[in-house]
Design brief:
The structure is a homodimer of 559-residue chains.
Chain A: E1 7-13, E2 22-27, E3 30-34, E4 50-53, H1 56-60, E5 65-69, H2 75-78, H3 81-87, E6 92-94, H4 96-108, E7 117-119, E8 125-128, E9 131-138, E10 145-152, E11 155-159, H5 177-185, E12 190-194, H6 208-220, E13 225-228, H7 234-246, E14 250-254, H8 256-267, E15 278-279, E16 292-296, H9 306-311, E17 325-328, H10 337-349, E18 353-355, H11 370-380, E19 384-388, H12 392-404, E20 419-423, E21 428-433, E22 438-442, E23 445-446, H13 451-463, E24 465-473, E25 479-488, H14 497-512, H15 522-541, E26 546-554
Active site (chains A, B): 194, 367
Family (chains A, B): Belongs to the metallo-beta-lactamase superfamily. RNA-metabolizing metallo-beta-lactamase-like family. Bacterial RNase J subfamily.
Protein name (chains A, B): Ribonuclease J
Chain lengths: 559, 559
């Protein structure tokens, strides 16, 4: 009996989590990928720079992988590409903007010119093996975001990408509701849709609103205006620039990613900066204060960002002062609340007027609220539905919405990364798993930091480390030097000399059991030291530092 | 010329920060303290258990300290007492509830019976040296919270404590607006007031609302109900218990602090539990599911709390399952958002219905919003105003409100801990500073972890540590053993053997410059190792682990 052909949808990232979005669509011997993002490390991932999806499955099936399709140019959708393309160099389809940002990334990784980047426009159709892919315009917090309709021999899979329904987008390019309607009119087998804001009732507001707020604050500001925003929110920057132009202010740019993205966006025509408006950050001080706007990174309070440095008075070119209006045009991403709050406090202390979340309409989300999700579900009327791009609680809420709209519960899949969702023309089911997870990037190392290293980092961070070194004779196990005890992150040594002296005595006592006899193995001695010292320190301090005994053996015969 | 007498207000904690509230009021040779709280460590204070105010100033003036006055029994107002009383054992005034909680704390510190705890009621007046102190009822998220009017020979200082204006409090004891009015009618020299919610417009809602929400969720719930809340929010627990009683459910309690506070509160008559309603957690499984309510700790997602353990399936007695309704009756404190979110995801995954912030009215704040702050300011009409209990941005906002109500800007002080605010009958000014800051408690150590230890912890957490040990001859500097390199939190060693081998060669090269010559000091050799290894590792990995060279010297002559 011939095996019935199937479509497999295999999420490798972005499901049950926020970030590192990546989904494989497989039909027979052909795989296409939707996005290849990164995630930023949680605080428990100490010292980690970025997190990639584990795409072992793709490496194992590298001959089947045909292409990567990008929905848009945010880091959580494109940030994994340099790493991925190094291993599996396939063509990448995306908007000119997304590819412009990818290109810059590849250059940073010294990979320019090594990959095929194929620009597509909304309503473009490309054929990749058995897949016919249509790109569909949506609104989002970066221009030229696109949903994908992937037509396969068994039916159509629609992935909304990140979207919102903005009826008055800044660039005038309205989301292609007609195309979604016509797909729904035909037949959608599987729909995957953005769940980020599934817990929010109503509609997400239009980006235009932020422009109106800028207008208001520009009217009120007597001196300099500093606007912090995500660099990739080009429509927001555009609105800031146009408002600046209207109020006869020059614009300077601070922060590496802001400079980079502005360069790409204006080069590609996504951003219009009136002639002569852009000035160098060094020129700011030479202009009257009411003629200046500074666009800066740091809206998330990132420790090394330009705004953070300004707030702490160590930005080389910009000193925040009374009279300045600072607009933080963003909402803190969960986990960043305290960082952002600290910046706000600092800016207030410097005398600035600070406009921030809660105090005004200076930010709107780029993701759809419940009414938009319902509209999209009702337009597409899919047979099977997979809520994606969200933590479990959001997926769950999105699933509930879908059920309220009449999609049967058994046709809705709340999944996890690595699960294989298998569809035929008339069936959908969970069928097995592939490897999935996270790969940590620390400096140049990709994947060389794992759970053991993280556990050690956490232990040292919480309790510090105590290193005990003894030099012993290889034959007799006589102590030749030491024990020396050094600690880091445990107690301030100068004030704890008595404790350390006593600790040394404990180690000596442990050694006395063994040394001079030559009948204890090194491992046994180490264990004795750990045990005695750990017990003693816990009694004295109620702390459990990591204890690391090191024994150096000297062969007196040969020396 | 005799020195003019003054009142000094000296905030030692809680100003420009949330937590560890403590304020000294000094007149001549007499000091009284308002509150003695602790703060919970920020994530940058790795491994720290709690944070105390630095009260060096009080220790230096211990003979002047007369008493501690407690506004209420929250940790950030009483948590520092066991440490403080160990050093300066003065009487403590507070409500019966606050003192009941203090008493329990002192027992935990094996200090029972060693301090004088003096219960007071609203409208009580006590005389302490030159101070006449009136206790005034306010509403807050713990019963029997009180403001203080401190009458001094130079005028009256009013400290609102933490408060809100709840016209329909659960216990029926309404905030004593009449007393505040009569104080304002006379004359208030200095007012200190709660700024926590100064950024929120309007009024804070009544605690009763939460009771109404409980009512609704109890009506809907078919099976067990689990409610997570702050243990100290006794009115909320009371409402949960009464609602449980109405719907004929038994109540069980999970989590140490919940058990403790319930015991104190019911013993002292603050909490009424109908006969036979309270059951043991072990009995829960024997009852029909629709007859059970579990009150639990963990509303902030604290890693070791009962709710967290239930969510992760490792609570000994309670297993969360489909059909359960879990109500998280709290808002995440800034910094806890991700912890709480993780719990919510986990509970959803277990199939529970989770009611949480944003999805409903299951929490109200205990602090006053702008309209309440204005009312209090207008009732008291102080000559001088010090916004307290808040971060800078909140103090700033509160100051703005006061100015809008007609208090001159120069009579409003946005201060910092350690500043001395000095008042006479007709003047107020900033006059000097006393030591202030934070004292870190780690295990049994109070103050033995300082910035150096924290910096080392952070460095090891981010980058890991590399220990290089060499045993050398004392005279000749010949290498007798090693160099051995061990690392923790750096790379997973088994996969990095080549890197470590090369690192060892670098160390050997550095040693070769020195050894066998006896002309390099140990410090110089260590510096060489650090330099060579640091450079090499950064080039290879772009990481900068802490490098710790340890040299053991063996005196071959004597050995």
């Amino acid at each position: 009996m011939a095996k019935e052909p199937t479509i497999q949808v295999i999420p490798l990232g972005g499901l049950g989590e926020i970030g590192k979005n990546m989904t494989a669509i497989r039909y027979g011997e052909h795989i296409i990928l939707i996005d290849c993002g990164l995630a930023f490390p949680g605080e428990e991932m100490m010292g980690i720079d970025i997190v990639l999806p584990d795409y072992t499955y793709l490496v194992e099936n590298r001959d089947k992988v045909q292409a990567v399709l990008l929905t848009h140019g945010h880091e959580d959708h494109i940030g994994g590409l340099p790493y991925f393309l190094k291993q599996i160099n396939v063509p990448v389809y995306g908007s000119r903007l997304a590819l412009g940002l990818v290109d810059r990334k590849l250059k940073e990784h010294h990979m320019d010119g090594q990959s095929t980047l194929l620009p597509v426009k909304p309503r473009d159709k490309v054929e990749i093996g058995p897949f016919k892919v249509e790109f569909i315009r949506v609104s989002h917090s970066i221009p030229d975001a696109m949903a994908l309709a992937i037509h396969t021999p068994l039916g159509t899979v629609v992935h909304t990408g990140d979207f919102k329904i903005d009826h008055t987008p800044v660039d005038g390019d309205v989301i292609d509701l007609h195309k979604f309607a016509s797909l729904g009119e035909q037949e959608v087998l599987v729909m995957l849709s953005d769940s980020t804001n599934a817990e929010r009732e109503g509609y997400t507001l239009s980006e235009r609103l932020v422009g109106r707020s800028f207008e208001q604050y520009f009217l009120e500001a007597k001196e300099r205006i500093i606007i912090a925003s995500f660099a990739s929110n080009i429509h927001r920057l555009q609105q800031a620039i146009l408002t600046a132009h209207k109020y006869e202010r020059y614009v300077a740019v601070a922060g590496r990613s802001m400079v980079n993205v502005l360069a790409v966006a204006s080069e590609l025509g996504y951003l219009h900066i009136p002639e002569g408006m852009l000035i160098d950050l060094d020129e700011v001080d030479r202009l009257p204060k009411n003629q200046v706007v500074i666009l800066t990174t740091g809206s998330q309070g990132e420790p090394m960002s330009a705004l953070t440095r300004m707030a702490h008075g160590d930005h080389r070119q910009v000193e925040v002062m009374p009279g300045d209006t600072v607009i933080i045009s963003a909402t803190p991403i969960p986990g960043n609340e305290k960082l952002v709050s600290r910046i706000i406090n600092q800016l207030f202390k410097l005398g600035a007027k600070v406009i921030y979340e809660g105090s005004s309409d200076i930010h709107v989300s780029g993701h759809p609220s419940q009414e938009e999700l319902k509209l999209m579900l009702n337009l597409l009327r899919p047979k099977y539905f997979i809520p994606v791009h969200g933590e479990y609680r959001m997926l769950k809420k999105h699933a509930e919405l879908a059920q309220q709209l009449g999609i049967p519960g058994e046709n809705i899949f709340i999944g996890e990364i690595g699960q294989v969702f298998t569809f035929t023309r008339r069936s959908g089911r969970l069928a097995g798993r592939v490897p999935a997870g996270r790969v940590l990037v620390d400096g140049l190392g990709v994947g060389d930091v794992g759970n053991i290293v993280l556990r050690d980092r956490k232990e040292m961070a919480q309790e510090g480390i105590l290193i005990v070194v003894v030099t012993m004779d290889k034959q007799t196990h006589q102590v030749l030097a030491g024990p020396d005890i050094v600690s880091r992150g445990f107690v301030y040594v100068r004030e704890s000399e008595a404790l350390m002296e006593e600790a040394r005595r404990k180690v000596n006592a442990a050694l006395d059991k063994c040394t001079g006899q030559g009948n204890c193995g090194w491992a046994y001695i180490k264990q004795e030291i750990k045990g005695a010292l750990g017990k003693f320190l816990y009694e004295k301090t109620r702390r459990k530092p990591m204890i690391m005994p090191i024994i150096m053996e000297v062969d007196k015969k040969t020396n």
